[in-house]
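Usage

Read records sequentially. Each one opens with the input sequence:
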Amino acid sequence: MHDVSFTIVTGVSGAGKTQAMKVLEDLGFFCIDNLPPSLLPQLVELHFQTGQNRKYAIAIDIRVREYFSDLQKALAWLDQKGYRYFLLFLDCSDAVLVRRFSETRRLHPLHQSLDTAESIEGTIAAERRLLADVRSIADVIIDTTDLRPMDLRQRLLDIYEGKPLHKSVTVDVFSFGYKFGAPIDADMVFDVRFIPNPYYVDKLRPLTGADQGVYDYVMQFPITEVFLSRVSDLIVNLIPGYAREGKARLTVGIGCTGGQHRSVAVAIALHRRLQDLDVAASLRHRERSAAPTL
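and closes with the structure output:
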């Protein structure tokens, strides 16, 4: 949890700044919507002169082009004076932004300052160019593309109620079989068909990786340990970056031929290892015939 009195909320139009401000208000912030950036230094100085123990959340929207050149000047002034602030940037995919503006039938804030013949896609692209520098210095970027309002709320609660940001990422480990199709919903996919196949051991064939015999067979090979060690280290080291980009769930697929033996055993082992490393992790098996885990 950061103890900075000033949170500046900005980002692409339609990404959820209004919803974020509602959450921050619930958390006790004094919220100011669409403050002209040129007034930010005055507000900060007034706050420190009065000695008030108050937290501010200031939403800055791109209603006119000058706003963000003024914002950069204001932030430079805060840095020069040594005032601390927290910059929260909300982002979203272009496709979802187009859909949101279409559903609400609202004009993009830049519509009036650009060529009226510009498409909504072109307007969004222009806004991204104007915001690029501010986005690059944000303390946290939250991508709301796949977030429901309640998910955005949880992300903000995680940030402002003391939980380390990387703790807000859950790693969803699942096993699958390539012969039933490669997963389309995984962020990372690992093929473990390099491990000798228990299917060719008669007594193990009818079992799954959730059975002790198959699990022990898969775990006995040094290459399995190398894989688990390196993949778990990779995931742990990447989580902070994913968290900063606003990802709440990292999905990791472990695949073998049929999704019954090697992938199940390795998924179980990876799940255990991540938990031992204090990573929030869940486990599932895509192929329904795989038995419950050990």
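Summary fields computed downstream for this record:
- The chain has two domains: 6-163, 168-285.
- The radius of gyration is 24 Å.
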